[in-house]
């Protein structure tokens, strides 16, 4: 079954062709990093307008890269939740248009479940049930995964997501956007023990997270107690100082993610860990996850780097299971932000 999938939940416009839930024939992603950089974060209205411009060229590229014709597609899939409402609507409308014009079945996919599906693509399916960790710009979720479409939420962030914290701290350090990759790069020259930033809720028996405290701690450390975002513009930092803060912040976030994932594995006794989402591209997190699962004798299924960040291949892969089960969406399917 050839599925054409769309993903536009946030600021990446993507279209992919995926065969039988596993084989990725093409996966085109057009990011909007340059557009949002000057704002230090994603501006929903800007993202939605850029999706409108990008969606058809990205779709054409996906078809060309798969060396096929649109008429060979068997079904259409799209992310309809969660995300930015304007952004979701562009992908959903494109998918509905293709579904209607070519009389193809339509499946709507949950973005977080799609992130957890990344290890299935071009690889052996993970044994289930598993603990799933999704770390992205909008979410930090721990779940119990019983099937590709059966996720039970065990814990989530109560405030900022891990990726959001990376983006906001990069903004404080004047490193640009998106924050994750640039903090990771800057941290290579820094000392992760230089500043002891807070690790929230490590002593609590909960699988929830909180990352807004560490972001505020970075702001105060850089610009003084009671500083505000308005003070960032005038800041003039020493490069060694920035590297040390980046490394110490990254270490604090990774420590919390590892500790809570360990707790989830211990509480449930599950033997498989699946990790996806944009932040799963982080080298330190990947290394610490490997060490953790080695120590606990747990099987680790990490999203391949090319499928960490938002992309439509994970959507097309997961949708295969919905389509096979005849769990279809209608042309009046709604986007749920
Ligand atoms: O999954 P994703 O592409 O979009 C959402 O669903 O939000 O994740 C984007 C997030 C951004 O916050 C970005 O800064 C973060 O993932 N990110 C990283 C890295 N690469 C991307 N965070 C830490 N280290 C990275 N290497
Ligand atoms: Zn995402």
List the topology elements.
Blueprint: E1 2-7, E2 13-19, E3 23-30, H1 33-37, H2 44-65, E4 75-81, H3 85-101, E5 106-110, H4 111-117, E6 130-135, E7 140-147, E8 150-156, H5 162-172, H6 179-187, H7 212-223, H8 239-268, E9 272-276, H9 283-296, E10 299-302, H10 313-324
Parallel strand pairs: 1-4, 4-5, 6-9, 9-10
Antiparallel strand pairs: 1-2, 2-3, 6-7, 7-8
Helix pairs in contact: 2-3, 4-10, 5-6, 5-7, 5-8, 6-8, 7-8, 8-9
The structure holds 5'-O-[(R)-(carboxyoxy)(hydroxy)phosphoryl]adenosine and zinc ion.
What this model shows, in words?
The chain is built from ten helices and ten strands. The protein is an alpha/beta fold and 337 residues long. Helix 5 runs parallel beside helix 7 (212-223), helix 5 (162-172) runs antiparallel to helix 8 (239-268) and helix 7 runs antiparallel to helix 8 (239-268). The two termini are 29 Å apart. The mean pLDDT is 97. Bound molecules: 5'-O-[(R)-(carboxyoxy)(hydroxy)phosphoryl]adenosine (KG4) and zinc ion. The site of zinc ion has 6 residues, from helix 4.
